[in-house]
Write a sequence for this structure.
C-alpha cells in the first residue's frame, strides 16, 4: 500500500497528460519553429495549452510565458523585473518565508547592489500588510510575495498587498509565487492587481519541467535566456512541447473543478488535523482551518527527529516530508519555521503532510493510525 | 612511435622466492585497473618492471589515473617506444620526442641510456654522447648538465627501445591480493573508508560490514556507504558489503542497559557481528577507523573493552592520526566529499550526552548479561538477514 502525502513536493502526473506527452514525444515530435506540417502540429499543441492556461486565470494568451517550472518562473520574474526597471530604483521587497527560488534571486540582487527589505510574518506565517505599506519607497521597483507558504500552508494577503503596492509605489512591479496555490485557491492576477505570477506544472499533476509565468501586458521584464526569440522573446529555446501540452491538460483539470476540489481538500484537511491533534506530543503549525491552504498540514512531533518520523512512516508506505522537500537535501534550519517562532529542537521535529485531490479519507485515517502507533514508540527512544 | 607506460615497483623486488607471486599479482591488478580505460593494452613483465603497451591511441591522463590507484606501484613513467631499426632512426625519434614533450627548449639535460640487450652495437656511454649531440644540434638552446640536469632523458634498449623523461609517483604499498583479507567496519564517516584504504594498500583484500538502523538512518545513508565502498574498491578491487539491520539490537540495548554505556556495548556487538562475517568471508582480521581519544568510544579504556568482544585481531591503521591528517588522506583518495554528506549513521543517533569514557569491562559485561538469552537470537537474526551488496571494483566516476 502506498499513501502519498507529499504532494507539495511533487504530484503524480495525470495519465491523460502523460498520454498526450507520449504521443508528442513519439509521433508529433516536430519543432514548432519548423515550417512544415510536422512543425505546425507541434505549434498547435502549444497554442491549445496557452489558450487553456490563459483562460484559467482570465488572462490574455500573450501574457503567458511557458518556462521549465517554478524556479525558472520566479527567476525570470525577479531578475527580469528588477533589471528592466533598474533606472527607476534599486529597492526591492520580499518576505522572510519565501521558497529558495525566490529568496536566492533576492540574495543575488543584494549582491548586485539592490537594497532588499524582508517582511516578517506572524506566528501563523502571515505577512502584515501595514509593514509592507511602511516599507514601500519611491525607489521600490519590485515586491515579491508567495500566495501559499510551502511549509506551513499560510495564505498571504496578496490581493490586499497588490492594492497597497500600486497605491503607495505606482512604479513597483508586484510578483506572486503561486506555485503552491494554483489550482487549489482561485486567483485571477488581472483582477487582483498582480503583475507577475509564477506557476509550476508538477505541483498540479502535470509533468516536471513545465510551468509558466504570467506577465501582465505592459509590465517590463528583461528576458533571462537569450537565443532564437521564442515565447515572444521572453524565453528562448525550442519549446518543450510535451511538457507544455501536459501542463495544459493538468491546468484544465485542476481549475475546471476547483470549487469541488477545494471542498474535498478542506474536508480531508479537517480529518487530518483532528486526527493529529488527538495524538500526544503533536502540535500543529500554521493555520489549521480554512484560513490556511487546503492541502498543507505542518506537525511538530516533540522528541522525534523529522527524518526518523519520515522514515518510520515510509516503512509503512506513507510518504511525507521533513520541512520542505526542496531544501531537505541540506541540513539546516528551515527559515519559515524559524520565522513563525519555532525554536530549538522543534525546528528539527517538524514534518509536513500535503494532500492532493486524489487523497482519500481512508488514506488519511491510515496515516493518522500510523502516527498514533509510531509516535509514542519513537518518543521513547531519544538522545538523553 | 607508440605510447607505453613503464610501471615501477619497489618493495616487491625484495621478496625472495615469492617474488614472482607478487609480480604476477601486480600484473593482474594493473590489468584490472585498465579494464575500464578506453583502448587496448598489452601488459608484460620484462626484468623488474611492468610494461604497459597501448595498442593505438589512448588518453594518457585516463591511463595514469587508473595506474596511480594500483597498490604496489611506486612510479609510472609514460614513455614512447619504437622498434629497433638502427641508431639513426632512434636518434630521430628521440629528437622528435623532446620536440613534442617540452614546449620551451632552454633547459639542461642528461641522457641516461641502459642496455638490457647487450648485443646493441653501441654501449651506453656511446649512446649517451651520440644522442646528446643530436639533441644539441636540433635545439641549440639546450645545455648538457651531467650532475644536476633539469631533465633526465632515459633510453632503455630492450627488445624494443623506449624512452621517457618524467615519472609520476604511484601509491606504493603491495599489490592487493598478496596479503590475505580483512573485514572493514564501514560507516558513512570520514575515518573508516581511509582505514580500509590503508589496509588495502598493504596488499590486503577488503570486505566490509555496514550497520544500518532504519528508520533512524535512511536509505540515502545506506546509498552513501555503498558509494564509499565503490570508492574504496577503486583501489582494493571487488568487495562484498554486508548491510546489517541493527535497529532492534540498538533498541534492546537502549531499553536494558545504562544509557551512558550504550555506545560501548553497541561497539562490542558490532565487533561480534563483524567477526561472523569475517569468518564467512575468510578474513583474518577486523579493520576500524578508530584513533585514540577521538571520541568517548575511542579512549584506551574503551578500545580495551571493545577489543575484548572481538575474536579476531582488530587492525586500526589510523590509531595515531589526528583528525586533520585523516581528512587530508580522505581528500587525496577521493572519499572525503562523499563522507561529509549529511546523513546520520547509527553510531550517533542515541549517543548519550555524557557517555562513559573509562568503561570497566566487568561492569559492561554485567550490563550485557541483563540483555538475556533472547538477545543472542536478535544478533543471530541480524547476521542471517543481512543484505549482501556486491561491489564490482574498478574506477568509480563519482
Amino acid at each position: 500500500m502506498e499513501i502519498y502525502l507529499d504532494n507539495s513536493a511533487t504530484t503524480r502526473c495525470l495519465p491523460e497528460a502523460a498520454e498526450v506527452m507520449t504521443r508528442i514525444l513519439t509521433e508529433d515530435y516536430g519543432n514548432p519553429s519548423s515550417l512544415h506540417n510536422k512543425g505546425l502540429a507541434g505549434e498547435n499543441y502549444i497554442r491549445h495549452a496557452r489558450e487553456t492556461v490563459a483562460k484559467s486565470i482570465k488572462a490574455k494568451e500573450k501574457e503567458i510565458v511557458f518556462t521549465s517550472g517554478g524556479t525558472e518562473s520566479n527567476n525570470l520574474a525577479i531578475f527580469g523585473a528588477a533589471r528592466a526597471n533598474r533606472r527607476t530604483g534599486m529597492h526591492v521587497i520580499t518576505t522572510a518565508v519565501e521558497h529558495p527560488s525566490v529568496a536566492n534571486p533576492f540574495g543575488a540582487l543584494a549582491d548586485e547592489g539592490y537594497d532588499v527589505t524582508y517582511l516578517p510574518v506572524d506566528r501563523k506565517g502571515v505577512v502584515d500588510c501595514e509593514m509592507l505599506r511602511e516599507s514601500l519607497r519611491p525607489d521600490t521597483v519590485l515586491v515579491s510575495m508567495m500566495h501559499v507558504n510551502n511549509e506551513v500552508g499560510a495564505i498571504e494577503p496578496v490581493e490586499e498587498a497588490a492594492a497597497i503596492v500600486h497605491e503607495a509605489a505606482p512604479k513597483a512591479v508586484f510578483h506572486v509565487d503561486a506555485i503552491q496555490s494554483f489550482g487549489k485557491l482561485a486567483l485571477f492576477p488581472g483582477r487582483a492587481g498582480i503583475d507577475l505570477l509564477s506557476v509550476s506544472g508538477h505541483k498540479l499533476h502535470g509533468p516536471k519541467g513545465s510551468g509558466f509565468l504570467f506577465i501582465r501586458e505592459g509590465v517590463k521584464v528583461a528576458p533571462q535566456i537569450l537565443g532564437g526569440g521564442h515565447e515572444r522573446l521572453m524565453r528562448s529555446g525550442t519549446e518543450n512541447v510535451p511538457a507544455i501540452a501536459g501542463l495544459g491538460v493538468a491546468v484544465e483539470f485542476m481549475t475546471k473543478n476547483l470549487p469541488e476540489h477545494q471542498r474535498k481538500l478542506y474536508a480531508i484537511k479537517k480529518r487530518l488535523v483532528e486526527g493529529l491533534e488527538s495524538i500526544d506530543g503533536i502540535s500543529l503549525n500554521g493555520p489549521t482551518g480554512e484560513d490556511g491552504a487546503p492541502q498543507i498540514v505542518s506537525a511538530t512531533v516533540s522528541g522525534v527527529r523529522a527524518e526518523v518520523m519520515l522514515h518510520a512512516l515510509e516503512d509503512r508506505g506513507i510518504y511525507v516530508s521533513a520541512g520542505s522537500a526542496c531544501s531537505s537535501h541540506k541540513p539546516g534550519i528551515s527559515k519559515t519555521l524559524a520565522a513563525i517562532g519555532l525554536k530549538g529542537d522543534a525546528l528539527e521535529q517538524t514534518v509536513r503532510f500535503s494532500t492532493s485531490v486524489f487523497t482519500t479519507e481512508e488514506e488519511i485515517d491510515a496515516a493518522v493510525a500510523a502516527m498514533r502507533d509510531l509516535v509514542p514508540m519513537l518518543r521513547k527512544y531519544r538522545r538523553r | 612511435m607508440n605510447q607505453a607506460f613503464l610501471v615501477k615497483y619497489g618493495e616487491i623486488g625484495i621478496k625472495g622466492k615469492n617474488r614472482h607471486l607478487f609480480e604476477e599479482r601486480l600484473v593482474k591488478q594493473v590489468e584490472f585497473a585498465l579494464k575500464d580505460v578506453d583502448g587496448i593494452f598489452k601488459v608484460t613483465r620484462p626484468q623488474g618492471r611492468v610494461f604497459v603497451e597501448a595498442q593505438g591511441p589512448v588518453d594518457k591522463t585516463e591511463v595514469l589515473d587508473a595506474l596511480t590507484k594500483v597498490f604496489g606501484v611506486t612510479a609510472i613513467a609514460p614513455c614512447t617506444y619504437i622498434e629497433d631499426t638502427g641508431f639513426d632512426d632512434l636518434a630521430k625519434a628521440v629528437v622528435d620526442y623532446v620536440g613534442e614533450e617540452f614546449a620551451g627548449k632552454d633547459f639542461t639535460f642528461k641522457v641516461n641510456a641502459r642496455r638490457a640487450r647487450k648485443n646493441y652495437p653501441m654501449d651506453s656511454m656511446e649512446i649517451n654522447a651520440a644522442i646528446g649531440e643530436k639533441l644539441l644540434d636540433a635545439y641549440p638552446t639546450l645545455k648538457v648538465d651531467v650532475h644536476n640536469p633539469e631533465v633526465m632523458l632515459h633510453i632503455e634498449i630492450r627488445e624494443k627501445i623506449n624512452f621517457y623523461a618524467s615519472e609520476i609517483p604511484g601509491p606504493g604499498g603491495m599489490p592487493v591480493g598478496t596479503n590475505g583479507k580483512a573485514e572493514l567496519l564501514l560507516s558513512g564517516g570520514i575515518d573508516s573508508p581511509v582505514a580500509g584504504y590503508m589496509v588495502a594498500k598493504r596488499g590486503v583484500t577488503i570486505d566490509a560490514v555496514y550497520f544500518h538502523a532504519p528508520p533512524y538512518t535512511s536509505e540515502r545513508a545506506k546509498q552513501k556507504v555503498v558509494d564509499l565502498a565503490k570508492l574504496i574498491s577503486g583501489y582494493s578491487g571487488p568487495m562484498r558489503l554486508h548491510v546489517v539491520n541493527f535497529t532492534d539490537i540498538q533498541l534492546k540495548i537502549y531499553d536494558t542497559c545504562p544509557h551512558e554505556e550504550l555506545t560501548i556495548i553497541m561497539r562490542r556487538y558490532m565487533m561480534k557481528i563483524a567477526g561472523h562475517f569475517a569468518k564467512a568471508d575468510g578474513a583474518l582480521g577486523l579493520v576500524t577507523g578508530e584513533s585514540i581519544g577521538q571520541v568517548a568510544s575511542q579512549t584506551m579504556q574503551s578500545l580495551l573493552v571493545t577489543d575484548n568482544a572481538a575474536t579476531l585481531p582488530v587492525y586500526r591503521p589510523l590509531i595515531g592520526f589526528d583528525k586533520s591528517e585523516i581528512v587530508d588522506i580522505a581528500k587525496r583518495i577521493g572519499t572525503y566529499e562523499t563522507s561529509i554528506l549529511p546523513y546520520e549513521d547509527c553510531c550517533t543517533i542515541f549517543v548519550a550526552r555524557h557517555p562513559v569514557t573509562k568503561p570497566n569491562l566487568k561492569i559492561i559485561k554485567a550490563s550485557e548479561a541483563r540483555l538475556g538469552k533472547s538477545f543472542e537470537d536478535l544478533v543471530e537474526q541480524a547476521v542471517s538477514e543481512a543484505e549482501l551488496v556486491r561491489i564490482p571494483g574498478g574506477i568509480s566516476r563519482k
Notes: The CA atoms of residues 188 and 225 of chain B lie 5 Å apart.
